User: Fold this.
Amino acid sequence: MQRDKKINRGNQTAQKAGGLADLTAREFRQNGAAIPRRHWVGGDPFATAFFNSLSAIFPQGEAFMVRSMAAWRGKMPPKLDADLRKFLEQEAAHSREHEDMNGALTKSGYDISALEAVIGKLVARFKGRSDITKLLATACIEHFTAIIAAEILENGSHLAGADEEQLPIWIWHAVEEVEHKAVAYDCFLEATKEWSALKRVSARNLMMFVITASFFINRTRGQVTLLRQDGFGRIAALFGTLRYGFAKGGLGRNVLKPWARFLKPGFHPAQIDDRHLITKGERLFADLQAADKAKQQPAERRKNIRLPKAA
Ligand SMILES: [Fe+2]
Ligand SMILES: [Fe+2]
Assistant:
């Protein structure tokens, strides 16, 4: 079940101290799940805006990562190549299901076209860039998605009170992000095994700063755009967004430490051992699926399934 090992990638040894889980592409279909409650995350407009703004960028963002990683198919050692193929399956499914969720968001009254235009422009900037640049960008984005996913699974407060129609997609997605967090990074290490350690760490950290600035600015703007549609003024939306992310217990604040670990020379995603979160998320996902199935059954046959409070 585990991939505990120490790997040597050319002139840099990455310490896989924590180990990694094997990858599984899980079957999941959102099936046009409705968003009956506008602020579906516990009635909180700021939390809802955060998750909605992420969903808005996933289809194009993850399609970019799929294209970037697909360029390396067949060019990696067999085990990594097999993981890469699973990664592609998982990300393609995430992109497809968030497209579905975005359709429901639009039906619920949000206009996400401005957010889609921004991610479209960002992705277009990578056109004509080298395969290694796109791979490195993917490895950095993957660190982001992995630490956010781990925080969501670890800390139930972020999705507390979320509507059960929307909760499964986030738990499913979070589990697979934690699970495949090292694939792009390992491909980057393999692709750059001839590089000096200094060149590799400099390129990696520079790209991480670019991705971080872009993520922070565009996610904040995206949330403000959605909150303006909820009737908030620009200043109230901006301060509310920053408070949501960075006040005590905020998701942004809680991921600062794992974000910074990426910058250390010799970093490898496996050094953060969060396999227990995959188990936790899988359990919650199974409960949610069982509850959904029970809902489809005639009332007298329904079992009393208790939904946990988010993760
Ligand atoms: Fe994903
Ligand atoms: Fe991912």
Summary: Residues 41-296 form one domain. The mean pLDDT is 89.
